[in-house]
Amino acid sequence: MPLTLEPNFAEPGRHYFRDFSPGDDFYQLLIDAHRDLTDEQSALLNAKLVLLLANHVGDLGVIGEALQRAREDVAGT
């Protein structure tokens, strides 16, 4: 399974009026999850979310590519 780089957010059975709406819904869910958390709690939530989603994906090749791509702009590599 290759890493999906195109927007791929959706809610099964829901029809969206605009193409970007599912991405907006994801962003709102993410912001709501972080609301009222300390910086430390927010970092812990992010770490747990990464592990949960990595487990869901399951393909170490895809996970490795995602980690590499995510690090590129952060570490300048």
Q: What this model shows, in words?
A:
It is a single chain. This protein has three helices and no strands. It is mainly alpha-helical and 77 residues long. It has a domain at 38-77. It is globular, with a radius of gyration of 15 Å. The two termini are 24 Å apart.
Weakly predicted, low-confidence segments: none
**Beta fraction of the residues?**
under 5%
Total DSSP helices: 3
Quantity of strands, as a count:
0
Helical residues, percent: 55-70%
Report on the biggest sheet.
Answer: none
Mean pLDDT over the residues:
89
Query: What separation lies between the terminal Cα atoms?
Result: 24 Å
Order of helices and strands: HHH
Structural category: mainly alpha
- Evaluate the radius of gyration: 15 Å
Q: What does the overall shape look like?
A: globular
Write the layout of secondary structure elements.
Layout: H1 21-34, H2 39-57, H3 60-75
Q: Can I get a quick summary?
A:
The chain has 77 residues and is an all-alpha fold. It has three helices and no strands.
Task: Provide tags for this entry.
77 residues; mainly alpha
